[in-house]
């Protein structure tokens, strides 16, 4: 039994605070966008909003981390996410202190706390539990993350990095302003990968909220990275709204996780819905479309722009195409393997590995038509395990399954490669003997019977009743099976009479 919680999740409390934060956010948005407030007052109100939402996200996350009734990975993951939100709150508080002193430093000590957000939340996202995946699926997911990051780097090179490089104006302001959106996109790529792994689990909405939060933050940081190094004038309220949206979504993700924990969800995957995978299937093509659009723009404008603009885009696009080709190759291999596995599963019995009833009847139909057309021989044996119920009642169904598997192995070992042994259902087996008349089939049945009677499972001898049916002019697959079935029941009646 797990230890009691040291600090309950209390989802109701955090839901109430989230609603209060939403009302504050909506009120600020209407006030800042419609009433054109004084910039100094707007700075104060927006900072308070950002600090409040960050503290809410930190508190909701840490309440999960301190709940000892939860799993270790879940607690550690939300601990780091809570610390990341706390780092944002500290950074916003430092920035507010600068603004109250009418200072606007960049970089500043606030950026140390802002930058601390990224390794902390990266660690938290890595640690959070997700549904288990196969190694090949994980390779594809990592490639998706690399594809998304590559497409983003192409856009950044062309719109931000290349102009600064050509102008030789790269300084700590430029590096820092570009570092924020670069880290954001790395996190988005990782979150998309984690979301795909959790798509068919209860963790999906939380991962989607985290990914949406980082998308909002990327938008804000990208605008900041474009305007700040160029010392261009821009409006703060829309930018603050994007940052506030990101902090609010982080708060909402932690609150939703607490509510889901209250409902005791599971991270084990449910049966996947293929329609929901459309975004995942289209993701590499969307990245290629973005890169191609940037490449086209750079090509059309290349006479008016330095060659380095186009060269960087071409190199990035080629790398992206290579990643997409590798990813699609792995997907194609997986699809082929799945097709082979599904085909094999549709033709074989899962327990014994023999042909199933459907495949047996299909081969019998083919052999009966061939025997009719060319005047060839064809026979069928039907086998019924004797006393299987005794094995099940005395030793359990596991031993009963061992009897069926042992019989299947005996059939394979005592038949020709051109013969088709099959499990028709329950304890009934069938054997198709092409190019075999009634006399030869009777010899094969006698040999099989002797081999089965010499076998033992759990110290108890096995036995089986065998019926024979052979092709005759005008016979059909149904009539051959009927003849074998009648012969099987005759053998069983004789056995019962003798015992």
Keywords:
499 residues; alpha+beta; two-stranded antiparallel ribbon; single chain; 2 domains; Alpha-Beta Plaits; elongated
Structure, described:
This protein folds into two domains: 11-342; 357-498, Alpha-Beta Plaits. The chain has helices spanning 11-34, 39-65, 72-100, 109-127, 135-166, 172-197, 204-227, 236-262, 278-301, 307-347, 357-374, 388-395, 397-414, 438-453, 477-498; strands spanning 378-385, 420-425, 428-434, 456-457, 460-461, 464-470. The longest helix is centred in the middle third of the chain and has 41 residues, at 307-347. It is elongated. Helix 5 packs antiparallel against helix 10 (307-347) and helix 6 (172-197) packs antiparallel against helix 7. By secondary structure, it is an alpha+beta fold.
Strand content: 5-15%
Structural class: alpha+beta
Task: Report the uncertain regions.
Answer: 1-7
Number of continuous helical runs:
15
Rg over CA atoms, rounded to whole Å, is: 35 Å
- Measure the end-to-end span: 56 Å
Strand neighbour order, sheet with most strands:
2-3-1-6
- State the total count of DSSP E strands: 6
Compressed to H and E, one letter per element, the order equals HHHHHHHHHHHEHHEEHEEEH
Mean pLDDT: 83
Largest sheet: 4 strands, antiparallel
Number of domains: 2
Q: Which shape, going by the Cα principal axes?
A: elongated
Question: Which percent range fits the helix content?
Answer: over 70%
